C-alpha cells in the first residue's frame, strides 16, 4: 500500500488551494494505480491546526491533532504540498508546519509542490520559494510543480494536463512497479527510530570518541 | 524510605506579573536558601537546584549553594537539576560532589543533564552539536574518577590524565548516586540503563507521552543490561503544581503567572496546558489525585520532585505552597506505598548504597608530603624562572 499525504494551507471555504490539492490527490491515485499498486490518499488541512501550530512554536511540542498530522507525514511514502501565495511566497501557516517537523523527517521523501494565487504573475513562487525549502529539507522534489491561478479554474485543458504530468512523475519516483526505489534512501535517524531500535551503549561510546580531539 | 518527595528549582529571576517587581539576584539567591530550608521543615526528602550560566538565572555555582544549604539542614538530600555534564569538566564535578558528600555526611546525589542553552557551550569551549557525545564521554570519565584511585585516561573532549587521583575520595568509598535526565533523547535513557543508574524525566512543560516513552525505553534497557527487571529500574519524575484549599482560588491566583511565564507564557491557555502536560492547578485533593496517576504510565517510581518557585512567584507564596505540600505529603506517601508492587526497590540513599557495597570503608589516598606547596613560580634561583624574567623565553 502506497500512502500519500496531501498537506494544504488554504484558508477560505471553498478554497482553491484545497481544490488543487484534491485534483493532485486524485491524479496521483490514478497514476499509482496505473502502475498496478494500491494507494491511500489522506488530506491534512493546516487551517484546523493553526492554533496548535502556534502553540507548538511556543511550547516545543505538538498537541494530539497536530501530532497525528505529523505522524501521517512521517509514515507517508510521498507528500503533496499545496500553499496559497501570500506576499510573494508560501503562507506563514504552510511554512510553520514544515518548521515544526523534526530534522530528517522529510529525508528522501518524494514531494510534489503546488501553489495557488490570484494571477499567473506569481507562478515562479514554486521555483524561488517552495523548491528551495524542500531541497533544504532533503526531500526529493518532483520536477514538475503545479501552479494554478484563479483563471485556471475556469476550465480548459491546461491545468489538468499539468496536474497529470506532475502526478505521473511522482508515481515514477515512488517506483511502485516493484523495482528499486528511484529516490535515494539515506536518511537521518529520527527519534522514533531510536525508540524503535535504540543504539547500543557500546556504539554510543565508540561514536563519542570518534573524530579529532576537541580540546 | 520508600519513595522520595521533593522540589527542584531552576533559579530564574522573573518579574512578578501581578506587581511588576523583579527580585534582585541577592534576594533570589537568599530566597532559594529559604525555600530549601523550609522544604526540610515540611518533611520533604530532596532539594535540587539547576545550573545555568546566564541571566535571568542565579543558578551558577550550584555546589556552593548546596554546601551552604547542607550546613543549615539535617536530613534533606541535596541534588541537582541538572548538572551540566557537557560543559563542566568531569574532573571538577568529581571533586566538588565528593567534597559535598563529606561535608553533608552523604546527603548528596546528582542528576546529569546536557543543557539546552546554545551559547553556553561555546562559552565553555564546547559545541552543542556534540552534546550527546560530550555527555557519554564525560560521564564515563567521571565514573572512573570516583571508582578508581589512580586514573590514566585520554579522550576526545579534554586533555589526557596521567596518574591522576581525584580528591577527596568518595565518602565511605561509595560515589554519589547519579540520575540521568533527558526529555526526548533516547541515547540518555540508554546510558542510564547501561550503568544501572537512575533515570529522571523532567515531566514539566511536556506531554506525558514523552515521559512514558523515555521511561519505558529506560526500563526495558535496564533489564537488557541485567541490572534487574524493568520494574526494578530507578525512576524519578518532575512535576508542577499550584495549590490552594479552594481550586478556583488556585486557578485565579496562578493564571497571571502562567500567562506570563518565561517558558510557556503567551501560548496555550492554562486549561489547555494543564490538560496537555502534568501541570496541576487546583485543590490539594486534585494534586494528590493527579500525582498518583503518574505511576499509571511510568510504573512504580522512586523520586517525585515538583517545580514550585518559578515564573515570578513571590517567596511568601512559594513557602505557602511548601506548607500545602507538607500537608498532603503523608497521604501521598501512604497512597503510593499502598499501590506499590512488591519487589520495587526503595529510592537509593547514601546509606543504602553503602550497605549494597558491603559496608563503609575509608577511601583516603595517602601521599607523602609534597615539595611544591609554598614554592614560587617567581623563584629567581630556579634557572627556568630566571630566564623568563630576563625575557629570554
From TrEMBL, chain A:
Domain annotation NADPH-dependent FMN reductase-like: ranges: 2-150
Protein name (database record): Oxidoreductase
InterPro entries cross-referenced by the UniProt entry: CE1759_FMN_reduct, Flavoprotein-like_sf, FMN_Rdtase-like_dom, NAD(P)H-dep_FMN_reductase
Domain of life: Bacteria
Entry keyword set: Flavoprotein, FMN, Oxidoreductase
Positions of region (Disordered): 179-215
Keyword 4Fe-4S included in the entry's annotation: no
Record-linked SUPFAM superfamilies: Flavoproteins (SSF52218)
Keyword Oxidoreductase on entry: yes
From TrEMBL, chain B:
Keyword Oxidoreductase appears in the UniProt entry: yes
Record's keyword terms, sorted: Monooxygenase, Oxidoreductase
Alphabetized InterPro entries for the sequence: Bact_Lucif_Oxidored, LLM_FMN-dep_put, Luciferase-like_dom, Luciferase-like_sf
Organism superkingdom: Bacteria
Every Luciferase-like domain range: 3-297
UniProt lineage: Bacteria, Bacillati, Actinomycetota, Actinomycetes, Propionibacteriales
Signal peptide: none
Name of this chain's protein: Oxidoreductase
Pfam families: Bac_luciferase
Amino acid at each position: 500500500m502506497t500512502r500519500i499525504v496531501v498537506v494544504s494551507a488554504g484558508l477560505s471555504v471553498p478554497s482553491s488551494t484545497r481544490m488543487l490539492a484534491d485534483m493532485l490527490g486524485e491524479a496521483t491515485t490514478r497514476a499509482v494505480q496505473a502502475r498496478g499498486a494500491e494507494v491511500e490518499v489522506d488530506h491534512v488541512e493546516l487551517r484546523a491546526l493553526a492554533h496548535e501550530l502556534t502553540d507548538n512554536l511556543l511550547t516545543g511540542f505538538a498537541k494530539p491533532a497536530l501530532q497525528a498530522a505529523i505522524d501521517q507525514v512521517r509514515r507517508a511514502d510521498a507528500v503533496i504540498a499545496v500553499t496559497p501565495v501570500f506576499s510573494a511566497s508560501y503562507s506563514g501557516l504552510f511554512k510553520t508546519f514544515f518548521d515544526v517537523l523534526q530534522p530528517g523527517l522529510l529525508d528522501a521523501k518524494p514531494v510534489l509542490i503546488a501553489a495557488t494565487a490570484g494571477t499567473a504573475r506569481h507562478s515562479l513562487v514554486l521555483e524561488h520559494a517552495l523548491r528551495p525549502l524542500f531541497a533544504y529539507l532533503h526531500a526529493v522534489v518532483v520536477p514538475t510543480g503545479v501552479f494554478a491561478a484563479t483563471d485556471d479554474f475556469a476550465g480548459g485543458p491546461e491545468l489538468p494536463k499539468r496536474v497529470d504530468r506532475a502526478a505521473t512523475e511522482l508515481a515514477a519516483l515512488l517506483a511502485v512497479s516493484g523495482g528499486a526505489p528511484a529516490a535515494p534512501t539515506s536518511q537521518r535517524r529520527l527519534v522514533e527510530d531510536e525508540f524503535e531500535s535504540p543504539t547500543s551503549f557500546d556504539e554510543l561510546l565508540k561514536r563519542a570518541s570518534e573524530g579529532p580531539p576537541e580540546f | 524510605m520508600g519513595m522520595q518527595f521533593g522540589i527542584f528549582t531552576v533559579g530564574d529571576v522573573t518579574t512578578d506579573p501581578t506587581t511588576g517587581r523583579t527580585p534582585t539576584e541577592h534576594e533570589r539567591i537568599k530566597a532559594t536558601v529559604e525555600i530549601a530550608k523550609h522544604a526540610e521543615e515540611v518533611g520533604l526528602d530532596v532539594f535540587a537546584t539547576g545550573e545555568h550560566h546566564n541571566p535571568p538565572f542565579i543558578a551558577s555555582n550550584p555546589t556552593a549553594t548546596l554546601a551552604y544549604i547542607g550546613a543549615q539542614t539535617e536530613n534533606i538530600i541535596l541534588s541537582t537539576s541538572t548538572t551540566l555534564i557537557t560543559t563542566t569538566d568531569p574532573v571538577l564535578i568529581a571533586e566538588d560532589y565528593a567534597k559535598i558528600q563529606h561535608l553533608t555526611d552523604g546527603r548528596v546525589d546528582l542528576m546529569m543533564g546536557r543543557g539546552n542553552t546554545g551559547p553556553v557551550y561555546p562559552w565553555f569551549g564546547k559545541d552543542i552539536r556534540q552534546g550527546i557525545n560530550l555527555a557519554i564521554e564525560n560521564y564515563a570519565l567521571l565514573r572512573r574518577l570516583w571508582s578508581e584511585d589512580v586514573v590514566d585516561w585520554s579522550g576526545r573532549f579534554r586533555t589526557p590524565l596521567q596518574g591522576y587521583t581525584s580528591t577527596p575520595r568518595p565518602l565511605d568509598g561509595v560515589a554519589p548516586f547519579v540520575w540521568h535526565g533527558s526529555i526526548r533523547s533516547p541515547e540518555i535513557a540508554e546510558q542510564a540503563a547501561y550503568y544501572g543508574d537512575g533515570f529522571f524525566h523532567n515531566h514539566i512543560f511536556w506531554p506525558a507521552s514523552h515521559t512514558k516513552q523515555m521511561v519505558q525505553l529506560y526500563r526495558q534497557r535496564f533489564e537488557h543490561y541485567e541490572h534487574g527487571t524493568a520494574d526494578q529500574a530507578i525512576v524519578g519524575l518532575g512535576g508542577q503544581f499550584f495549590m490552594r484549599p479552594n481550586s478556583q482560588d488556585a486557578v485565579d491566583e496562578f493564571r497571571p503567572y502562567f500567562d506570563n511565564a518565561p517558558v510557556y507564557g503567551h501560548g496555550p491557555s492554562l486549561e489547555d496546558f494543564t490538560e496537555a502536560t502534568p501541570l496541576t492547578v487546583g485543590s490539594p485533593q486534585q494534586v494528590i489525585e493527579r500525582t498518583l496517576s503518574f505511576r499509571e504510565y511510568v510504573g512504580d517510581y522512586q523520586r517525585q520532585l515538583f517545580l514550585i518557585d518559578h515564573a515570578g512567584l513571590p517567596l511568601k507564596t512559594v513557602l505557602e505552597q511548601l506548607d500545602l505540600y507538607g500537608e498532603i505529603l503523608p497521604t501521598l506517601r501512604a497512597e503510593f506505598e499502598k499501590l506499590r508492587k512488591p519487589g520495587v526497590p526503595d529510592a537509593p540513599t547514601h546509606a543504602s548504597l553503602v550497605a549494597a557495597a558491603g559496608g563503609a570503608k575509608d577511601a583516603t589516598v595517602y601521599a607523602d608530603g609534597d615539595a611544591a606547596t609554598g614554592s614560587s613560580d617567581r623563584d629567581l634561583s630556579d634557572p627556568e624562572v630566571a630566564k623568563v624574567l630576563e625575557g629570554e623565553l
